[in-house]
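FIELD: query
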Amino acid sequence: MKRAVRWALLSVGLASVVTAVTVAVTVAPSSATPPLGLTNVALARGTNTSHGTIPLQFGTDVAMAKITVDPGGSSGWHSHPGGAIVVVQQGSITVHQSAGSQCQTTTYSAGQAFIERPGEVDDVTNAGTVPYVLFVTFPRVPQGESPRTDQPDPGTCPGL
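FIELD: result
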């Protein structure tokens, strides 16, 4: 009888731990910074099934998007699980990257391209007078997942 009671209590305790971990993992961070004035239009998405020489992971997705941000808008702090290849089609952008305890700022304008590395945390702002338009390719996106991960403000770039 004591064994049955212990087993029941252990089972209930284990179920509680599993529930708590599941809730903790699935609840979105409350301090994530949302985009402002951003429009994201998915252009295409496909699963890599080739064995080419570009270092893509077989079975992951490659997604493409057109991203437009109004003057005064921003992407909000975010990262990309597989990185991003970005081409600035119109306007000018300022990338604020959190690098350790430092804020690194780089400006790009129409006709320029740059790469965001996997997991790199940044906020892209539009201080210009026209919307910026980006064409972005997201390699190595896990199947069924978003190419973007919202991140909390790391506190390294005051005023954003």
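FIELD: remark
The helical segments are 2-26.
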